[in-house]
Amino acid sequence: MADVAFGSEQGKRRDRLNDHETYLEMVRRKRMYGGILLVLFVALLSSGWLLADARNAGGFWNGLPQVIDFPAEVLAEAWAKRANLPGLFLDHVPALIETLNIAAVSTLLGTLAAMALSLLATRGLARWQALIPLFRRTMDALRAIPEIVIALVLIYILGGGPVPAVIAIAIHTAGSLGKLFSEVAENADLKPVEGLTAVGASWSQRMWLGVIPQVAPNWISYALLRLEINVRASAILGFVGEGGIGHDLKLAMQWGQGRYDQVVAIFLLLFLAIVVIDGVSDRFRHKLVKGI
Amino acid sequence: MSANTYPPGLADGIIHSFDRKRRLAFAIPMLILGYLVYAAISFDISSLVQRARFDNAAVLLSDFWSHKTHVTRDNRSGQVTVAIEGETKGTYPDGMLPDWMDSTGGVTTIDLGQGHIVTYDDAGARYTVPGYGIIDIRPKDGKPVLTAPEPIPDWISVAPNKVSVTTEAGRFSYSRSKVETFKYQPGWELWFFTLDSPFYGKSMIQLGSLAISGDRIDPARSNLGYMVNEFWTNKMWRHGDVAWAIFETILMAFLGTMTAAIVALPLGFLAARNFDPLGPLRFAARRLFDFIRGVDGLIWTIILSRAFGPGPMTGAIAIAITDAGTFGKTFSEALENIDEKQVEGIRSTGANGLQRARFGVIPQITPILLSQVLYYLESNTRSATVIGAIVGGGIGLLLRKRS
Fold first, then answer.
1. Considering only CA atoms, which of B301, B81, B35 is closest in space to residue A235?
2. Helical segments of chain A, H only
3. Which residues cross the membrane (chain A) (predicted)?
4. Which of B386, B398, B401 has the highest number of chain A CBs within 10 A, making it the mutation to test binding with A?
5. Inter-chain CB proximity A159 and B293 less than 8 Å
6. How many Å apart are CA A140 and CA A129, to the nearest integer?
7. Average pLDDT of chain B?
8. Nearest 10 degrees: CA dihedral of B302, A223, A241, A275?
């Protein structure tokens, strides 16, 4: 039976010596392909770096010693004015809360949309089987548009403030969580759903009572992971657009020298917020996925 | 018999747990709703509705499928310029005019379509609106004086120094210094060739025959090469620049992700409990990953752009650093979950540490690593857009400049 794997003709006794040769031949070919791929990859990567270096404003080797300069300058100034830091922390807490609110609201809205989209796009669960491809493509489209494009368009229409960022991040979240949610829902046990169908439950009741309780731990875990990502995204969008701690950071940076204590205060706040949120969500996710 | 005897308190317990679930089923949506209401208040939604400029949305939408041509007359010099989107790059050269307008002997006639006609002449300007009448404007002491059928409708706005008219066919405005008409037309004008190009205004068939046979317009090169060059260096749409910017963005994502993976793999071994006998080293590697991830791409980007200046390399390094932290964490988790049996097997043949890693561990984790790396490659293509907007490279920069 085992020789099927070696591909020798059926009914023939296999030649041990030849097998060895074939095996070595296979290994050699595999190594050659691997080697070619590796060389190609290295060539691509190094030429890519050279090209990127050439198109950059400052060269790599000129810039390398300067990497430390800016942080050192900022830290030195902040250290000299360290007495200001606690006050500056307090000043920027509202902006941090706004950033966290943007992340939380957009994750919440995105998750709610993703729940509906994913159930509508999952084979076996969907309300309208024929429309599954439509909902899938919708999720792909939501995922494919970069947040910044949506945010810039919305800033133009709605003006500044946190709402454009919320909508932009929520749209992206709906698309990417929808895909993950639908993958989880595909593996859900259909027996509770059948039971609910038997007692005459409507589609929303079947989903709410039969599917959601099964997938909830995984879904919440994914949503928390997304929250971590969205906190960062909302800080970055604040830097590019308006609102939240990212915007404060941009203003402080534009002031430049003399305001570096403010920059450090914002850096530290953001750093602490991200570390705390990551830690809490990491622990919670572990609990959800691996049991208590 | 025993099947019917329940332990005391079981029924109560079940009823209690049902009650709890029922309460939760109400409490959680209420909590979410409460939070959203709080967020709506703190985001100041009510004033947003007033601030929102839905006319901007209309402008954006109409820009998406149409373009406008400005016909401007300088009231002092009498010079008439016709420019697409009002840009110098889209200005019609002398002696060349679009077919819907005519300019002879100091009289300019613009046909806005649907019977709307605008005329500029020495006395002033006239706009004939079908179903309404003639809007006549004459300057008096430098100020425009309006004569139009009364009552003046609200689509004509009259200010001391400016009269502007907005109809479904276009826009017209007369001020002290100039008189201007916008004509809206569908399509992306100049998408292929700008006005100064010899290929402007030719049909596909004409272009095709020029490309294949036809005399050389520029004797130094073939027509097809000339055409491609004119398209690529189109001053209005800048196809070449856009293509480069997209390429740079993808390059940033590719270089950043791959470099991060290469750097993170050995570090991941250091941070995995089952490979690294030295506790302090493991602790240091883990804290390093936490630090890198905590500092976040935004801050890395800012620091690096100070040192390396704007460009794709800065973005690539920023992505590489941020993702090295993430990969380090996920790789070390994957390494901790491997099957030890294969490593044992390799060890029994007398392999050293490097060989055990190469033949016992790497084949096991390759699928996980590859799926991670590919997932991040995809998501980094999007982050590279944002990072490009910050450091100034790639499509993000173009997006930000244009918006």
1. B301
2. 16-55, 60-63, 69-80, 85-120, 132-144, 147-158, 162-186, 191-198, 203-206, 212-240, 244-255, 260-290
3. 32-52, 102-126, 147-171, 263-280
4. B386
5. no
6. 18
7. 82
8. -30
The domain limits of chain B are 2-42, 67-186, 239-402
Burial class from Cβ neighbours inside 10 Å (0-12, 13-18, 19+) for residue A277 reads: buried
User: Contact at 8 Å (CB) between A251 and A66?
Assistant: no
Task: Identify all chain A residues contacting B393, using CB atoms and an 8 Å cutoff.
Answer: 55-56
pLDDT tens, position by position, A167-196 = 999 999 999 899 889 988 988 888 999 999
> Would you say the ipTM is above 0.85?
no
Distance from the Cα of residue B322 to its chain's centroid: 23
pLDDT tens digits for range B106-126: 788 888 878 888 888 877 888
Quote the CA–CA distance of B137 and B135 in Å, as a whole number.
7
Per-residue DSSP letter, A277: H
CB contact under 8 A, B307 and A66: yes
User: How far is the alpha carbon of B373 from chain A, nearest alpha carbon, in Å?
Assistant: 14
The residue to which tokens 């609910």 are assigned: A196
Distance from CA of B232 to the nearest CA of A (A): 19
Q: Is the pLDDT of residue A8 over 60?
A: no
Q: Which of B298, B308, B399 sits opposite A56 (nearest CB)?
A: B308
Q: Which residues contact A231 (CB under 8 A, 6 or more apart)?
A: A99, A100, A103, A273, A274, A277
Q: How many other CB atoms sit within 10 Å of the CB of residue A201?
A: 16
CA–CA–CA angle A176, A180, A181 (5° rounding): 110
CATH number listed for the domain at residues B239-402: 1.10.3720.10
- In terms of Cα–Cα distance, which of B397, B244, B392 is closest to B318? B392
Contact assignment for A235 to B296 by CB distance below 8 Å? yes
Mutate to test the interface with A, among B382, B383, B401 (most CBs of A within 10 A): B382
CA angle B273, B276, B280 (to 5 degrees): 90
User: Looking at the partner chain, which of A58, A157, A162 has a beta carbon nearest the beta carbon of B308?
Assistant: A58
